[in-house]
Design goal:
By secondary structure, the protein is mainly β. It is built from no helices and 64 strands. The strands form 14 sheets. Strands 3-4-64-63-62 form a five-stranded antiparallel beta sheet, with no helix packed on it. Strands 9, 10, 11, 12 and 13 form a five-stranded antiparallel beta sheet that branches. Strands 14, 15, 16, 17 and 18 form a five-stranded antiparallel beta sheet that branches. A hairpin with a 2-residue loop joins strand 31 and strand 32 (258-263). The radius of gyration is 27 Å and the shape is flat. It starts with a strand and ends with a strand. 40% of the residues are buried.
Length: 536
């Protein structure tokens, strides 16, 4: 889009993109609207970028087109289902199109080469958005196309590839030619294998290493930077795994019906079974934990030392952010318990999945559990009151770790939010995604429903009622409370209790907070699509 200076937001001069020339500005210069174009109709699919762009797939006269920022692209017979995608930074948009029985990759409105077919799940962008890859087929042969350059032909492709390295400079894929599989990194084939494991390879976070599991005949091994490791009868699923700093690698392997943990190429003591997906490195990469089975009992191994035996292990292993503390879930005497820093907690009928975690400052730990027909939250070993259920997505800690909040339902089928141990008033429901703490942890907000009306509660104070409320949260600096509301069939943002300009609809997923203190989003008014910039 073209850019020109159009005015001031407060004391800040800003340059905006105006492709269509129609703009409106509030009298106090706090809000600016740019008309992108007519609001699209007959929309089949919408995708959003993370820089406030929207792409629409539109059906018109039995044909299909894509509209981006108000600009209509070419018309096609079909557009690939779920192929419409923005690059991570929003600089590019791509999709698969079909015309005259040929398939094309369309990138930023430009058609690529025609093919007989393009694989589902295409395209794939690198994390930096600079590179794009997809599988294409001609005459029953598959080729990987990277940045519009075709690779060699293969008979079969690995559906979980291609995979880019974290820095986007390298790309891997696996493909079969004849009876053999090949690992291809940056266009160079490696090995002739009978099989290559799914979900591999993995690149290290520092981009210096790449590893994958493969097999020849009855032997399996891990290939690290092109070198085959020791041979085993099997390699565990999801392996190998790099430490966060990329300096260590671990996987579980089997030989003669016994399992071993292989860390940095060295096999440890043998055991009878391995708990899948249980290998976890600490955030500082100095520690490792995994689950094993000896006989009929499970053990957690921490830095090579076996812990006490349990009847069963649950794949929930958690390090504190400072890497000094450890927690996991285990079963003993038919009850599930949480072990924190080597000390067992009380037994429960179950532990809620995804609720066990440490506070950001590593000083506290929390989880939710089920006890009979009741549910409760346990923080630092102290059990809270009993509820019927604990609401998904809670409990949560404040960013500074000093506060904790969760939501639960009581025996009257009412929902309450508990903040720092204090129970709030009952409501018919709690709005999804709340409660939310401000970045400094000093304020907490949540949304609630009562008698088919919605309201926001900030630090215990109730806001006005609306028909619908969405996207409740704070600005990144924590100074402003922002959410989307609907009243009298109009949508608008509410900022610090003040209702903004009203629209026919707001594209919820386009909301972004810019570093210069501007809230940007897309909205529809009077049949037109607008890019709206509101100074907070």
């Amino acid at each position: 889009m073209n850019r020109r200076v159009i005015g001031m937001f407060g004391l800040l001069a800003m340059t905006f993109t105006y492709a269509y020339g129609q703009t409106s500005q509030s009298e106090d210069d706090t809000l600016l609207e740019e008309r992108i174009g007519p609001a699209p109709t007959s929309v089949k699919e919408i995708v959003y970028s993370n820089n406030c762009q929207a792409a629409f797939m539109i059906e018109r006269n039995d044909k299909f087109l894509v509209m981006v920022d108000g600009r209509e692209g070419p018309v096609y017979d079909e557009i690939g289902k779920k192929s419409l995608v923005f690059s991570p930074g929003g600089e590019h948009v791509a999709y698969v199109a079909i015309k005259d029985k040929n398939m094309f990759m369309v990138t930023d409105g430009l058609e690529g080469l025609p093919f007989d077919g393009i694989a589902e799940g295409s395209p794939v962008f690198s994390a930096d958005g600079r590179h794009m890859a997809y599988w294409a087929q001609n005459k029953q042969k598959w080729r990987l196309v990277v940045d519009d350059k075709e690779g060699p032909a293969y008979d079969k492709r690995a559906e979980d590839t291609p995979i880019f390295s974290p820095d986007g400079k390298h790309v891997y894929y696996a493909a079969k030619k004849g009876e053999k599989w090949y690992a291809v990194i940056d266009g160079k084939e490696r090995g002739e294998y009978d099989a290559i494991a799914k979900d591999t390879p993995i690149f290290s976070s520092d981009n210096k290493h790449v590893a994958y599991a493969a097999s020849k005949g009855r032997t399996s091994f891990v290939v690290l930077d092109g070198k085959e490791g020791p041979e085993y009868e099997a390699i565990s699923k999801g392996a190998p795994l790099f430490s966060p700093d990329g300096k260590h690698m671990a996987y579980a392997a089997q030989k003669k019906l016994k399992w071993f943990m292989v860390i940095d190429g060295r096999a440890g003591s043998e055991f009878d079974g391995f708990a899948k997906n249980s290998i976890v490195f600490s955030p500082d990469s100095k520690h490792i934990i995994y689950g094993i089975r000896k006989g009929q009992k499970g053990h957690v191994v921490y830095d090579g030392k076996e812990g006490p035996e349990y009847d069963e292990l649950y794949t929930m292993y958690v390090f504190s952010p400072d890497s000094r503390r450890l927690a996991y879930v285990a079963k003993k005497d038919k009850k599930w318990l949480v072990v924190v820093d080597g000390k067992e907690g009380p037994g429960f009928d179950s532990i809620y999945r995804g609720t066990l975690y440490f506070s950001p400052d590593s000083k506290h730990i929390v989880y939710a559990a089920k006890k009979g027909d009741n549910a409760l939250v346990i923080q630092d070993g102290q059990a809270g009151p009993l509820y019927n259920t604990i609401v998904a997505g809670t409990p949560i800690f404040s960013p500074d770790g000093n506060r904790m909040a969760y939501a639960g339902s009581n025996n009257e089928n009412k929902f309450v939010v508990v903040v720092d141990g204090q129970e709030g008033p009952p409501y018919d429901g709690i709005i999804k995604g709340t409660p939310v703490f401000s970045p400094d942890g000093k304020r907490v907000v949540y949304g609630a429903t009562q008698d088919d009306k919605c309201r926001v509660i900030l630090e215990g104070q109730q806001g006005p009622e609306y028909k619908v409320i969405y996207n409740i949260g704070f600005s990144p600096d924590g100074k402003h409370l922002v959410y989307i509301a609907n009243k009298d069939n109009y949508w608008f943002f509410v900022v610090d209790g003040q209702e903004g300009r009203k629209y026919t609809s707001i594209l919820f997923d386009t909301q972004i907070f810019r570093p210069d203190g501007v809230l940007e989003f897309l909205a529809v008014k009077q049949g037109n699509l607008y890019s709206v910039k509101q100074r907070l």
